[in-house]
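Lab notebook page, bench 4
Experiment: in silico fold of construct C2
Operator: M.H.
Input chain length: 304 residues
Purpose: comparison with the prior construct
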Amino acid sequence: MNGRLTLESLHYVDTVVSAGSFSSAARTLGLTPRALSRSIAKLEVYLGADLFCRSSRGTALTEFGKTVYPGISRVVDLLDSVEKEAEALSSGECTDVRVGMSPQLDKKIVADLRQNVHGPGSVETARGLTLLEAEFDPLERALHCDDVDMVLVPALGMFPEYRHRLIGSDCLVVAGGPEDEFFGQGDGMAPVTVDQLSRYELILSRHGCGITRVVKEILEEEGCALAVADVEVSNCSTLPGWLGSGMGSVVLPERSVAPGVPARRIIREDGTYVEMFYEAVWSSEGRDPVHLEKLADRLAAGMS
């Protein structure tokens, strides 16, 4: 490769892609189209291939450009994040970290979060922590509306445009189940297969802590039907209160079941237990994304 790679030229490429044309990008950047075109041409020489197809119909990435642009975009996003973080630090405007969390989240993770925000050995000094506990749906809205900086929620394949980091997991169990005639006598607290789970009448939550979605997914994966109890609750926080009511069975994270309450793990046909995974989710374009990524990395490191 000849010449040199500059962050400025990468920023120019990102702006052209966002604007859709060299002329629009030049106006955004305060450059002449000729100056912008020459800068990107130098980058193309350095990389060894054209990034853009230039024609009377507009500007589009070449196949080579489509391949390398995601890397360019990540570099530009990281640079923006560093600049925002540095500006906040230099101005003394280190604000509280606002975190939304699911009620089912392991409180050990919350303790680890607090320790890493303003405990000994914290990621960064002069930070506070504001916690919002809510169900999945309101947390999703809060993240989209920038009312929180990060959410700690069940990993359900949501938020594709955000950053993600797995931070914990827990086996799901079913409690308040039917009598042993479904499963044979003397099996103690042996795991329940997914097929056996389909015979439970389950009390489910209408809104999202993730348990309802996971239960439906595992039953569908193994071709089993869902038997629903007459009771439906508004959120997952109230599920433990229905244990022993005689109205149906409840699926919960294992650590949410009180000591002494009979509960069975759920096992797939391949012999693996059904788990609820949790993740940290944040925006690379929000407040202090570098700091949030460091926090997420610390929480992920604490997974057992």
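Observations: The longest strand covers residues 163-175. Confidence is low (pLDDT under 50) at residues 180-187.
Next step: discuss at group meeting.
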